[in-house]
From TrEMBL:
<keyword id="KW-0813">Transport</keyword>
<dbReference type="Pfam" id="PF02883">
    <property type="entry name" value="Alpha_adaptinC2"/>
</dbReference>
<keyword id="KW-0333">Golgi apparatus</keyword>
<dbReference type="InterPro" id="IPR011989">
    <property type="entry name" value="ARM-like"/>
</dbReference>
<dbReference type="InterPro" id="IPR013041">
    <property type="entry name" value="Clathrin_app_Ig-like_sf"/>
</dbReference>
<feature type="domain" description="GAE">
    <location>
        <begin position="665"/>
        <end position="780"/>
    </location>
</feature>
<comment type="similarity">
    <text>Belongs to the adaptor complexes large subunit family.</text>
</comment>
<dbReference type="Pfam" id="PF01602">
    <property type="entry name" value="Adaptin_N"/>
</dbReference>
<dbReference type="InterPro" id="IPR050840">
    <property type="entry name" value="Adaptor_Complx_Large_Subunit"/>
</dbReference>
<dbReference type="InterPro" id="IPR002553">
    <property type="entry name" value="Clathrin/coatomer_adapt-like_N"/>
</dbReference>
<feature type="region of interest" description="Disordered">
    <location>
        <begin position="630"/>
        <end position="653"/>
    </location>
</feature>
<protein>
    <recommendedName>
        <fullName>AP-1 complex subunit gamma</fullName>
    </recommendedName>
</protein>
<dbReference type="InterPro" id="IPR008153">
    <property type="entry name" value="GAE_dom"/>
</dbReference>
<keyword id="KW-0968">Cytoplasmic vesicle</keyword>
<dbReference type="GO" id="GO:0045202">
    <property type="term" value="C:synapse"/>
</dbReference>
<dbReference type="InterPro" id="IPR016024">
    <property type="entry name" value="ARM-type_fold"/>
</dbReference>
<dbReference type="GO" id="GO:0006886">
    <property type="term" value="P:intracellular protein transport"/>
</dbReference>
Length: 785
């Protein structure tokens, strides 16, 4: 006997009337028990009602798996009311993870061949929703037959089912190729729209289909021209635009067919120009058609004038009040800036105005496009605009803006003084947001501009006197004051206003940096070294410098304490060598490969020439004579062997301090990933004081023609190791060798276990999401031994 239960409408009312979730669960559990009892009793007349209630319970999130087999029974029933609920249940309760879905293949096949249109529609909907690869292979022939049925209702659903089949099983392309060309001659909106979607799927997954459908480009051009000129049907027009959905799909298909094919591109050039000029832009539907037209022009072999027209359309989009339209315009111009740079440059003022957008996503895209527009002819004007934006931009954009300005200044600087002024301005405004290599780059730039030493040290001193919170600025200023402090005190720089600085003022400023709570340990080290170097640059008494150095000999920071102890030893035991040891740093050529190569070149240059009649005494030998520890009066004693060319090694030997072991050989870099111009390299470094710690710098570069966006790198190591991922330098790698992304990985390996690294990369490239997971097993042995 069937247990009486609620009707569907009564069940819905009772569930909605429940005051608490506990009451709702009680009602559902009670009704599910009635449904189970009904299924066990096998009442065929009311089975569809019980399943309908169960589907409602499933929609609320409660388990309903016990109704799967009932769906199969209802699908096999000859009654339409049973089939309707059964197919609906199959779409909701079954998927590829359940083997039960394969049991309905024969029922679907029978229903497709019955000729009853409502039943065929139910079967096609179910197949297109949850059909697995096995079901698609078994039923492809039946679906292909329905593509040519006289009923538009069945044909439309058969086309959508064919789209699902191609996505599941691309090798079924040959089954649907003959029918698609005939379906293009249909006048029914739904059939034509579905056919174009099916052709797009075929072309994207089969090169043979792409070649086959390039023959129908004239037909597509004819259909689109009819839509633009005479209209297709008034019932499908939106805001005065004739069937924009069909226009957009045809433009997307033309983009696929014309890509890398000159003949097809030439056949659609005139039509694209007509669409671009005649489409109404006062409504969003017209803007959608125009945007797809621009994308098509960008991807095919279009004429130069047509590409300029596309850029101008995007320029008009930038003036639109809709933020979404402005966003897609900025993204599209960013893609075009490499290939049509001069055309995009015409809209530079509008792009710069977009920097002031309150929407963070818009201002970020405007910033990326503004940086891409910088070249040698507009670098001064664009840098001024970007610096003005840097002062008011939100904190999340400051790092990208500062790094972009520094990179643009490095590539297109008209003069060294302008380059130095630009970097100083960025460090003053957003010093804490710049990349780690900004300090080294600026010190190298100043050291190479010998005629600007006095100007640079005065500017840096003034900037540091006003604000010591920007740590990179303070580090560069301390280094510059230590190197060129004598020029600061002279006060005779012709390129700046006269600045009279006393020795006590300079020393007081450096002491202020040392004592400030805002100073990082590295900044204090710069300031302490600057004080030590000033002991040879200043003409007064060094008593104050000695006191400061002796105080930091008991500092808690080990690095700072070591420096202070060494400097104090230099004062006490080797004061006669202090001037030679603390002389100005030699200029290091930019792009020098490694320290070892520079050292080898220095040693080679220090060797006397055997062919010369009078041996020239190299600078290294003169330094050894000046620092002759034995004070040999004869003057003809043999020179001691050359010292370590690095300044740190020389200091250790000369100060007679405990000699540290020689640094290990550098670990070679390796390339672990490359795809479509995107490359990932790993570089390694071991801190001398922590042998169990390995620092891995992940560098992502992009040599392709499209930007890499939303870049995320994740890493995993075995459980015996500890991994810490630092924040990356950004999430966008510009095209054609733009600014790379770097990320630091800190791996602690106290047991020296063999290192294995698993990386997961996710990013967007050419508008497509990419995800790669791979394991790096070829790491050098030096990374873990």
């Amino acid at each position: 006997m069937v247990v009486p239960s609620l009707k569907l409408q009564d069940l819905i009312e009772e569930i909605r009337g429940a005051k608490t979730q506990a009451q709702e669960r009680e009602v559902i559990q009670k009704e599910c028990a009635h449904i189970r009892a009904s299924f066990r009793d096998g009442d065929p007349l009311h089975r569809h009602r019980q399943l309908a209630k169960l589907l409602y319970v499933h929609m609320l999130g409660y388990p309903a798996h016990f109704g799967q087999m009932e769906c199969l029974k209802l699908i096999a029933s000859p009654r339409f009311i049973d089939k309707r609920v059964g197919y609906l249940g199959a779409m909701l309760l079954l998927d590829e993870r359940h083997d039960a879905h394969l049991l309905i293949t024969n029922s679907i096949k029978n229903d497709l061949s019955q000729g009853i249109q409502p039943v065929q529609g139910l079967a096609l909907c179910t197949l297109s929703t949850m059909g697995s690869a096995e079901m698609c292979r078994d039923l492809a022939v039946e679906v292909e037959k329905l593509l040519l049925q006289p009923s538009p209702y069945v044909r439309k659903k058969a086309i959508l089912t064919a789209v699902h089949m191609i996505r599941k099983v691309p090798e079924l392309s040959s089954v649907f190729l003959p029918s698609c060309a005939r379906l293009l001659h249909e006048h029914h909106h739904g059939i034509l729209l579905g056919t174009i979607t099916l052709i797009m799927e075929l072309c994207e997954r089969s090169p043979a289909a792409l070649r086959h459908f390039r023959k129908v480009v004239p037909k597509l051009v004819q259909i689109l021209q009819t839509l633009v000129t005479t209209g297709y049907s008034s019932e499908h027009s939106i805001s005065g635009v004739s069937d924009p959905f069909l226009q957009v799909q045809i433009l997307r298909l033309l983009r696929i067919l014309g890509r890398n094919h000159e003949e097809s591109s030439e056949a659609m050039n005139d039509l694209l120009a007509q669409v671009a000029t005649n489409t109404d832009t006062s409504r969003n539907a017209g803007n959608a058609v125009l945007f797809e037209t621009v994308l098509t022009i960008m991807d095919i072999h279009s004429a130069a004038g047509l590409r300029v027209l596309a850029v101008n359309i995007l320029g008009r989009f930038l003036l639109n009040s809709d933020k979404n339209i402005r966003y897609v315009a900025l993204m599209s111009l960013l893609r075009l800036v490499q290939s049509d740079h001069s055309a995009v440059q015409r809209h530079r003022p509008t792009v710069v105005e977009c920097l002031q957008e309150t929407d963070a996503s818009l201002s970020r895209r405007a910033l990326e496009l503004s940086l891409a527009l910088v070249n040698s002819s507009n670098v001064r004007a664009m840098t001024m605009e970007l610096q003005a934006f840097l002062g008011s931009c939100p904190p999340e954009l400051r790092a990208d803006c500062a790094s972009g300005i520094l990179l643009a200044a490095e590539r297109f600087a008209p003069t060294k003084r302008w380059h130095i002024d630009t970097i100083l301005h960025v460090l003053t405004m957003a010093g804490s947001y710049v990349r780690d290599d900004a300090v080294a780059n600026l010190t190298q730039l100043i050291a190479g501009a010998q005629d600007l030493h006095a100007y640079s040290v005065r500017c840096l001193y003034s900037a540091m006197a006003e604000d010591i919170s920007q740590q990179p600025l303070v580090q560069v200023a301390a280094w510059c004051i230590g190197e060129y402090g004598d020029l600061l005190l002279e006060g005779n720089c012709e390129e700046s206003e006269p600045l009279q600085v006393e020795e006590e003022e300079v020393l007081a400023l450096l002491e202020k940096v040392l004592q400030s709570h805002m100073s990082l340990p590295a900044t204090r080290a710069y300031a302490l070294t600057a004080l030590m170097k000033l002991s040879t640059r200043l003409h007064g008494d060094n008593k104050r410098i000695r006191q400061v150095v002796s105080i930091y000999g008991s500092c808690q920071d080990v690095e700072l304490q070591q420096r202070a102890v060494e400097y104090n030893t230099l004062f006490q035991k080797y004061d006669h060598m202090r001037t030679a040891i603390l002389e100005k740093m030699p200029l290091v050529e930019r792009g020098g490969s490694q320290v070892g190569e520079v050292a080898e070149e220095s040693i080679a240059a220090a060797k006397p020439s055997e062919a010369a009649p009078v041996p020239t005494e190299p600078q290294a030998s003169k330094l050894l004579d000046l620092l002759n520890l034995l004070d040999d009066p004869s003057g003809d004693a043999q020179h001691p062997p050359p010292l370590d060319p690095s300044p740190r090694g020389a200091s250790v030997h000369l100060l007679d301090l405990p000699c540290a072991p020689p640094p290990p050989a550098p670990i070679p870099n390796i390339k672990v990933f490359e795809r479509e111009g995107v490359q990932l390299n790993l570089s390694f470094n071991r801190p001398p004081g922590t042998p169990a710690l390995l620092l891995i710098t992940v560098t992502a570069t992009n040599s392709s023609g499209g930007d890499v966006t939303h870049f995320i790198c994740q890493a995993a190591v075995p459980k015996s190791l500890q991994l810490q991922l630092q924040a990356p330098s950004g999430d966008t790698v510009p095209a054609r060798g733009g600014l790379p992304i770097t990320q630091l990985l800190r791996i602690l390996n106290p047991n020296k276990a063999p290192l294995r690294l698993k990386l997961r990369l996710t990013y967007n490239h050419f508008g497509q999401p990419v995800q790669e997971i791979f394991e790096v097993n070829n790491l050098p042995v030096e990374t873990w031994q």
